[in-house]
């Protein structure tokens, strides 16, 4: 086996008694719920601060109980089911969206696997469980959650929810590919898909330093995965009223909102685990304090990293406007996927050369030469392609009729609106005496009527 492959030892998992497994599962659920309640208030406070407003300040100290009050209000509101809805799917859709959001936290490590803690006299790890394919498990449950949004849009029996569900489906397909490629780069460096092993492999250097492009790719894709601004096209209020959850109210709407924020916490936890050292203390602290990564302290560092990533979500929402849907698809298919696949090939090349015991200078020379050759080939191809386009006679663009379908529609890229008819210049109009007919502008009072007089 290659010396760069990690030796997985997952024997410490699966030995807990049933009551301890139940306690750890309840803790994971409580961690997500408390983090969601805090994140909602924090988002409203931060956005209010950005917009020079006060934000929530009535319920609880500093308004910290505002999200709890909103949740109680939603549960007490009237639950409506529209007539045209498929009632079974309509009711199950929020459940399908919410349950997978909680499942990914089961394989996230809150502390080192080798540093067991004591709970009621029982030694256990600070992780519910781990799998040799834990990251594939996370990708699987994240993909299942999208079915809740698609089914909600279809079962509502309305146009706008259906469009929102279809947008979410297309968005998920375009971003899951780039996300998987970003994960694959981490797998190549760590030699494992186990979350605890990936964190252990970041003992000397976090993967955000070794794989910065993978980190940026995952940050972009996780925003699209959670349908958050500026990629919140499935529920864009500007053109889809509310998107897939337009026809939902009361507890069903609350479950969709809960699923969104739980997904935010989950993808932030995955990002911290893969690229930010997971539960490990940052360098200035771990450098002079040996006990920073022992006991209950790792949970603190992990929580701080998750909160910083949640602040990034809030910062984006308060800063960037929503993009157009064609821009969203162009970013996913024409930018993220090619960049992620190219970066994955570079990472695989570097790892192969390292396994063959090449020096760093030789690796940099080979990889840099390959990149220069690709850039040169792309330049030559673009140059000949531009010459071919210039040789062709420019074709007339097809005419665009905004009222062709019976109602006004905006032009697509490359189409232009016809010129707007203007009134004749003011100097061409004669002075009309008050009470006299304007024979030049009024078609009904033409020369015929004048002759009748």
Topology:
Blueprint: H1 18-50, H2 66-76, H3 87-103, E1 117-119, E2 122-124, H4 134-155, H5 159-190, H6 195-200, H7 207-210, H8 212-225, H9 237-240, H10 250-275, H11 283-288, H12 297-319, H13 325-355, H14 360-391, H15 447-452
Helix pairs in contact: 1-10, 1-12, 2-10, 3-4, 3-10, 4-5, 5-8, 5-13, 8-10, 8-13, 10-12, 13-14
Account of the 3D structure:
GO terms for molecular function: NADH dehydrogenase activity; oxidoreductase activity, acting on NAD(P)H, quinone or similar compound as acceptor; quinone binding. It comes from Streptomyces aurantiogriseus. The chain crosses the membrane at residues 18-42, 88-111, 131-154, 175-194, 206-224, 261-279, 299-319, 331-351, 363-381. Belongs to the complex I subunit 1 family. The chain has 453 residues and is mostly helical. The chain has one domain (18-379). Helices cover 59% and strands 1% of the residues. It has helices spanning 18-50, 66-76, 87-103, 134-155, 159-190, 195-200, 207-210, 212-225, 237-240, 250-275, 283-288, 297-319, 325-355, 360-391, 447-452; strands spanning 117-119, 122-124. The protein has a two-stranded antiparallel sheet. Helix 3 (87-103) packs parallel to helix 10 (250-275). It is globular. Residues 1-6 and 441-451 have low confidence and may be disordered.
Distance between the termini: 108 Å
Number of domains: 1
Gyration radius, in Å: 29 Å
Q: What's the oligomerization state?
A: single chain
């Amino acid at each position: 086996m290659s010396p760069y492959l990690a030796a997985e030892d997952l024997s410490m998992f699966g030995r807990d008694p049933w009551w301890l497994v139940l306690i750890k599962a309840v803790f994971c659920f409580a961690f997500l719920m408390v983090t969601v309640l805090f994140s909602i208030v924090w988002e409203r406070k931060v956005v209010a601060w950005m917009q020079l407003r006060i934000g929530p300040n009535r319920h609880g100290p500093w308004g910290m109980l505002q999200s709890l009050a909103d949740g109680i209000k939603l549960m007490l509101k009237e639950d409506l089911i529209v007539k045209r809805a498929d009632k079974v799917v309509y009711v199950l859709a929020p459940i399908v969206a919410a349950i997978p959001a909680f499942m990914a936290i089961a394989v996230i490590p809150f502390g080192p696997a080798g540093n067991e803690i004591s709970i009621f006299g029982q030694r256990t790890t600070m992780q519910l469980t781990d799998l040799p394919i834990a990251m594939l498990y996370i990708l699987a449950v994240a993909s299942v959650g999208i079915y809740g949004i698609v089914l909600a849009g279809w079962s509502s029996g309305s146009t706008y929810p259906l469009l929102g569900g279809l947008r979410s489906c297309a968005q998920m397909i375009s971003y899951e590919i780039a996300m998987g490629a970003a994960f694959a780069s981490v797998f190549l460096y760590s030699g494992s898909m186990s979350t605890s092993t990936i964190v252990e492999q970041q003992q000397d250097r976090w993967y955000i330093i070794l794989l910065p492009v993978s980190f940026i790719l995952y940050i972009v894709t996780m925003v699209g995965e959670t349908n958050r601004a500026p990629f919140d096209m499935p529920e864009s209020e500007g053109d889809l009223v509310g998107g897939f959850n337009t026809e939902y109210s009361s507890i069903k709407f609350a479950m969709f909102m809960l699923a969104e924020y739980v997904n935010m916490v989950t993808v932030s936890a995955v990002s911290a685990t893969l690229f930010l050292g997971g539960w490990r203390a940052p360098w200035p602290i771990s450098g002079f304090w040996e006990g920073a990564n022992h006991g209950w302290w790792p949970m603190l560092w992990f929580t701080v990293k998750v909160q910083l990533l949640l602040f990034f979500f809030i910062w984006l929402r308060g800063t960037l406007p929503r993009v157009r849907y064609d821009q969203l698809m162009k970013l996913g298919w024409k930018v993220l996927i090619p960049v992620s696949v190219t970066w994955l090939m570079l990472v695989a090349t570097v790892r192969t050369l390292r396994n063959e015991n090449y020096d760093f200078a030789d690796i940099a020379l080979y990889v840099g030469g390959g990149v220069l050759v690709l850039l040169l080939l792309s330049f030559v191809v673009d140059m000949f392609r531009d010459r071919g386009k210039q040789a062709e006679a420019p074709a007339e663009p097809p005419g665009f009729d905004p009222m062709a379908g019976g109602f006004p529609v905006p032009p697509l890229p490359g189409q232009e609106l016809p010129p707007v008819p203007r009134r004749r210049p003011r100097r061409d109009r004669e002075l009309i005496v008050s009470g006299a007919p304007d024979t030049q502008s009024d078609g009904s009072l033409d020369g015929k009527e004048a002759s009748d007089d």
